[in-house]
Amino acid sequence: MSARIIDGKAVAAGVRSRVADGVASFEAENGRTPLLVTVIVGDDPASEVYVKGKHRACEEVGMRSLHHGLPAKTTENELLELVRTLGEDADVDGILVQLPVPDQIDPDRIIAAIDPAKDVDGLTPVNAGRLAQGMPGLVSCTPSGVMELLRHEGVDLEGAEAVVIGRSKLVGIPVARLLLGANATVTSCHSRTRELAAVCRRADVLIAAVGVPRLLGAEAIKPGAVVIDVGINRTDDGLVGDVDFEAASEIAAAITPVPGGVGPMTIAMLLVNTLAAARARV
Ligand code: NAD
Predict the structure, then answer these.
(1) Entry pTM
(2) What is the strand order of the sheet 205-208 is part of?
(3) How many domains does one find in the chain?
């Protein structure tokens, strides 16, 4: 069997096009354009690349974006002050502080200071709590991108066995909660899970969010499973996921490639969140 390749680039392009239409109607109705503000502290090259991609994406859908690049020696109080100022600025719809921040700054304190109504990364305790309680709120972008891919592929989650590997605040936990909300039977695996492959082999829907290159091989895939590989790992062979793509493709019904699977969805969902935040603030 050869799995269907889930084309994240194409799905993301569809999402971006819907956002572009939404931005145009928002402007027509409200006489202003949604605004995303990004913040980087220090000069982490990967952060620069990610944030540039986010600004380019905003431009493509007709959204405004501004950037604050702060020096590496910025104090926690200085960053808190900026985040609070942006929260009070009526012109700002979305605030994104790119992580990691330098050691002198506690990222949890910064995230908690972001106005939940502008928390387009969905990481504040308020939005994470809303998600935990099944209440509407801004949901972090990679997990909602995973759900959008499953929706687009027409995967029936009702009663399905879903296994999520990884329990980070950013990906694993919110994905598991969203799958539960879609009535899947959800198992969360992590670094201390015993018999990982055997647990994974139960999955109709397997979501890998670990950060270990090709951790999951053929022995972890149930025949006919849908495999979503969130992992992005730099290796000598280039970027690879947490799943052995070649081996899994022989067994799964559908699988995301790395790159070109979940990655493009993350930025697309950031645009969705920024437009939603702007609409909710009208
Ligand atoms: P993280 O390091 O915060 O969490 C990793 C999780 O994997 C932890 O919960 C840990 O318990 C679990 N884990 C580690 N080793 C394991 C093992 N051997 N067996 C089972 N579980 C194990 O990472 P994260 O932020 O959740 O990111 C996970 C991966 O997803 C990374 O490769 C990251 O680059 C990628 N990522 C991709 C996107 C995207 O847009 N595609 C976005 C965010 C993260």
Answers:
(1) 0.97
(2) 4-5, 254-255, 226-229, 205-208, 161-165, 185-189
(3) 2
